[in-house]
Amino acid sequence: MNKSDRSWLGRALESLQPILAVLLGLAVGLAFTRFAGESPLHVLKVLYQSAFGSSYDLGMTLFHTTPLIFTGLSVAIAFHAGLFNIGAEGQLIWGALAAAVVGHAFPHLPGVIAPWIAVSAAVIAGAIWGAIPGWLRARRGSHEVINTIMFNFIAAGITSWLVIEPLRNPDTQNPETAPIGEAFLLAPFRVFDDAPVGPAFLLALVAAFLLWLFLNRTSLGYELRAVGQNEHAARTAGIDIARIRIFAMAVAGGLAGLVAVGEVLGNAGRFKVGFSPDYGFMGVAVALLARNHPIGILFAAFLFGALHKGAMDLDLETENVTRDLALVLQACVILSVSAEGAWHWLRRVGSAGKKRG
Amino acid sequence: MVHNEEFSGKMALSVPALLELRGVSRSFGALRANAEVDLKLEAGTIHGVVGENGAGKSTLMKIAYGMIEPDAGHLLIDGVERSWWRSPREAIQAGIGMVHQHFMLAGPESALDNAILGESRPTGRWSFLPPLLRPLDRKGAIQRLRKLSDEFGFDIDWTAEVETLPVGVQQRLEILKLLDRDARILILDEPTAVLTPQETDELFKNLRKLTRSGRSVVVITHKLREVMQFTDEVTVLRAGRVTARLKTKDTSAEALAEAMVGRKVVLRVEENGKSRTPVSNESVLQVEALTLAAARDNGKPRLNQVSFDVKRGEVVGIAGVEGNGQSELIRALIHPSHADCRTSGQVRLLGVDITHTRDSEIRSLGVSVIPEDRHEEGLLLDRSLEENYLLGLQRDARFSNRGWIKRAQLRTLVNEALEAHDVRPRDAEAKARGLSGGNQQKLVIAREFSRHPKCLIASQPTRGVDVGAIESIHSKILEARSGGTAVLLLSSELDELMGLSDRILVMYEGKFVAEHRRQQGSSPYDERAIGLGMSGVIQ
User: What is the pTM of this model?
Assistant: First the structure.
């Protein structure tokens, strides 16, 4: 299909398609609330008010958007290398714990470098937790989907034990570590009232841009995508696919580890067991929605962040639906977008079949 | 329109054609795949339909077989006009059968079960049941099939699992399947693409028996030698239109090629009258005692003490029936680090021991590879031509500066390469998948030759490539040879090997069993002797 024989209108419509698919998914999801005895319009209003109603609400939405950007990017880079990283959850837990431990262990570091040290620790911890399944896949052939899923449980188990045993905070009954030093804390932006959204959000934007730059402008990024596209061709071309796979999973883990910046350094100031409402798994959905495009992930994460935050007020503001509606809406959006993808795919397969003359 | 008097003479002048297509047109979007195509298939003939990739051969046959509906045109069976098929099922009922290029067989099932798969023959007392619920009548089926295979000489072990059968036998099974369904018209899509010369002869011998029984065969192909040797009539398509309709005995391969391509084509590999530059004495690639342990099922090593060398400016051809270790040899050379690829031996490139180097280093030492299966190993099908051109060159100083890709430079060089190698379309952003096989291969060759390789390893460089492109690929290989490149050539087309090679090594069961040197004169090699080596007679 030649680019030039499509009209500008057709192309405009085509670029709008993902947005239309998202809207359709939301509409279908909201329609369900009708059956629960709520007015979909009322629910929509509550969602909107809760997500964007005040600068504080918008700030909270961005606060939830931030980790989703990181985990979305984490899933996306693995996907570009032909790998499915379902392990962002485990990777981000390790990242957060590492940041918290470093922040607690060196409380007297100067404020200029302290956050950087903690960020590095988070990236390294996440990268290691990502690289291990990467290595297992590349050198031992055991599938990364299975391994990353299992690594989530292992990460959750080990970190919980560390927090309630060796790293126990004697000042509290809660399963959390001792607070990190003052120098490590990142101040939130003032424009969002007291919402804990700060430098982590900017870091997420930068990370998305850098990832895009890496994938599309560098030789290594090209190699990574080549491996994802066709590993046999990549190998024949002399690309070391095992190294690329390990590298991709390490970067994926590192990106997931960056969730620590917003959660530990920017908000809690410590590691709390179970702090993540499955950001790692939501990252899979975010990447899927964005078709693994780093810039698209910013928007997809924002949508999911808004749904997550918006749904929080449903418990109070409506009679019959709860915040779990966020999951329903996210699912509907994913289904709708996937159906659109499937439609594209069918059309392509169809036209490829016809072309063979 | 040429009438076929030879056959009509035998069967009275008024015998109508078994199948006739008149004025068939079909478009896909802007593409006219078929434009007013006529095809007349006389009873008892083998009819070749030839044309380059994308000329509309497959579309035409899919129309005849009911897989595609035409936009316009008429269909006549036995001279009687009838409406177009609504599905292949109707075509099958009318006696038309098709063997697709990629066989439609269920690998783990027996040949017999494959033959009766999906048939709904009323079987006596169970005929009251809907077809899907009727029990399989294996006994009756095997009797019918044995009778057919005896009659037409298609030997098959009916109990064997299909995936264990050689390709040639699988093809026989596909044909018998059609005969069992009372097909009078058989359409074979590129039937010889996977066969050895001997198997090809065998196939056409059997097809000839079929035509003696009044059946007719349509063979879609682009191998002109086979058309000339085995067909009675031939229809040539170019860009969706019929450009020639001839009796085979009245034409020549050159004339057919011209009708296919639309210009004069050099069919034989020639260097424009120039004599071959002499081969230098300097070895580029030296392989010593390369061995690869046995696969699990047969005890024989896949590569057994293979030793040879390729010199500067020399083309060394490897002949052999598929599956005798050629692919393994190539893999062992280009993937030394891969555990499957070798067990012992030594490989040297320009005197440097590369037995244990990394895959990526082998390429940077000056080795280019034209892979056997360009879709699997050569291309990123869903990516642009530009990105495909970059594959393997992404760290080349021409395209990369400290890890950053030089995009402007890349675009310029890609456009130059598309122009120089006549890759169509000339659109760096087009997807590789949309290109014809010939153009995909030209893209691979453009990329691999841009490295100015010291050593070129080319497997099946013209497989599935149309006549016009074959000519240009051959001349590129010979150009590289004259420029001092050492070329290792693996091909299942003996003509290609004999045309290009300075030496031919014959491989059988993982070993070299014979070496033939190019002789002066018009027939540089003894084809029969090479064939004997391939079949394992000489050891």
Answer: 0.76
